[in-house]
Specification:
Length: about 475
């Protein structure tokens, strides 16, 4: 039971109001005295100390966010390492994922847009976030919406006080861990440049071509593989002689002879990413230089149909334009073997053309295109490989072979006919019955034999084989 005077005070509103007025007046007097006696800087310090003393909640952590862009003066190795490392951190708490699958590999799981992954390192909590930004660039001439370009990056957030530990220890740990994971399974990438975006865009390279399935003459195939192996093992040699660690290949021959398949086979053999560059999308030498600086090490740069992709002004031809505003032959040559060619290691450059005679001789000299590979018409060995791949017919010359008769007929027709491996493969795909497919190929070859070549000249198998021995040049 409360005392009587307390009950009276509580029951009287006028008493409560009187007490409040008295307290307010006292506080105003104290405030005036404090302002007159204590300097304002001292007041601010005291109030800050009082707030810290009586604050109920713990202090809020100050977070730092590191942005890991996909490209930074070239392919960002930290971005690649983070992408591989974080795949191993995906667990049941991840809400959204992106999956893909190639024909010869398992399901690949990667991050969806704006997905976050939590990680810990030496007691420090970290949060990764995958961000994708899509921008649309308006074309100057037309009024359409233009083309889209995407930028991808990771955001790494943590308590700011651990900055030195994260940058000095955690980031190297991620790079080292990703190297271990990459050795177990590397997903090859195909990079393209559309002409309106600011950098390369990539997709998984899923081309199944290998040297085992490539319709190519054995001696020529072995020469290419030996040259690639020799190139990979000579890093110290290139450094010692003062040359950029790169190799140039010129693939030339009629359409359909397997030039693109050879590039894919090289990529799968070396485990190199591929950069497919269309010169028609390049506006100037400076843009070409910026793009090539963004290519990663251990990669293949492919420029297809270089003879007809763009008209490159001659180095000696007079021009009224600013050289910085156009793509020139000298700019391309400077990248191939000039000072800019040394910006990167373990790189392969591949030019393809259907008409080697149309190329400027400056592109063909040693040091630029080190190995010239003539992709010829289909010969008998290439046919047997295609028959084994498409029809499951063993590659054998046994006299008791059930298809011996038709094989012999095809061998004779190939010696007198110009037909590409692509045409042979297309004919073999028309039926799963080997007898039907081979009969169709015989009809095709007989039809080709009756046709007269455009130049009135037909090369024999012996002539083509002699050309291969001369044109497969290894430095």
């Amino acid at each position: 039971m409360l005392p009587g005077n307390v009950m009276e005070i509580m029951a009287s509103p006028s008493s409560l109001f009187s007490a409040y007025a008295s307290f307010s007046g006292s506080m105003m007097l104290v405030r005036t005295m404090v302002n007159d006696i204590i300097p304002r800087p001292v007041q601010a310090y005291l109030w800050q100390a009082i707030r810290r003393l009586f604050k109920a909640n713990p202090p809020v952590q100050e977070h730092l966010t590191l942005v890991v862009e996909e490209y930074f003066h070239g392919q960002n190795e930290i971005f690649d390492a983070a992408e591989i490392y974080l795949r191993s951190k995906i667990d049941a708490n991840t809400d959204r994922l992106k999956i893909s699958k190639s024909s010869d590999e398992g399901v690949l799981v990667s991050f969806a847009k704006d997905e976050t992954i939590l990680d810990t390192f030496d007691g420090v909590e970290l949060k990764w976030k995958f961000v994708t930004v899509t921008t649309r660039r308006q074309r100057r001439v037309s009024y359409d919406e233009g083309e889209e370009s995407q930028e991808q990056y990771f955001e790494l957030s943590f308590d700011k006080k651990h900055k030195d530990k994260i940058i000095g220890s955690y980031v190297p740990f991620v790079i080292e861990k990703s190297s271990e994971l990459k050795g177990k399974e590397k997903v090859l990438k195909m990079f393209t440049f559309g002409g309106y975006g600011r950098s390369w865009s990539s997709v998984d390279l899923q081309h199944p071509s290998t040297f085992d399935t490539l319709a190519m003459e054995p001696e020529q195939k072995k020469a290419v593989m030996n040259d690639l192996d020799r190139f990979l093992g000579r890093r110290e040699f290139y450094k010692r002689v003062g040359r950029a660690w790169k190799r140039g290949y010129l693939l030339h021959g009629p359409p359909g002879t397997g030039k693109s398949s050879l590039v894919a086979a090289m990529a799968n053999y070396l485990k190199f990413n591929v950069y497919d560059l269309q010169l028609s999308n390049i506006r100037s030498d400076s843009q070409l230089r910026e793009l090539l600086l963004e290519t990663g090490n251990s990669s293949i740069l492919v420029i297809e149909d270089i003879d007809c992709s763009i008209d490159l002004p001659e180095r000696s031809a007079p021009t009224q334009k600013d050289p910085r505003s156009e793509l020139t032959l000298s700019g391309l040559l400077n990248f191939i073997d000039g000072l800019w060619s040394s910006c990167g290691d373990e790189r392969i450059i591949v030019f393809t053309t259907n008409h080697v005679e149309k190329l400027d001789p400056a592109l063909l000299r040693p040091g630029r295109m080190d190995m010239h590979i003539h992709m010829s018409y289909c010969m008998y060995h290439s046919f047997k490989l295609l028959a084994a791949n498409y029809l499951g017919i063993p590659d054998t010359d046994d006299e008791n072979h059930c298809h011996r008769r038709v094989f012999t007929e095809i061998k004779g027709l190939l010696a007198k006919t110009q037909v590409t491996p692509a045409e042979v493969a297309e004919e073999l795909m028309k039926s799963e019955d080997p007898h039907v497919a081979l009969d169709g190929l015989v009809k095709l070859l007989k039809q080709k034999k009756r046709e007269t070549p455009a130049d009135g000249k037909l090369e024999t198998v012996e002539e083509i084989e002699d050309q291969l021995k001369e044109k497969v040049k290894i430095e």
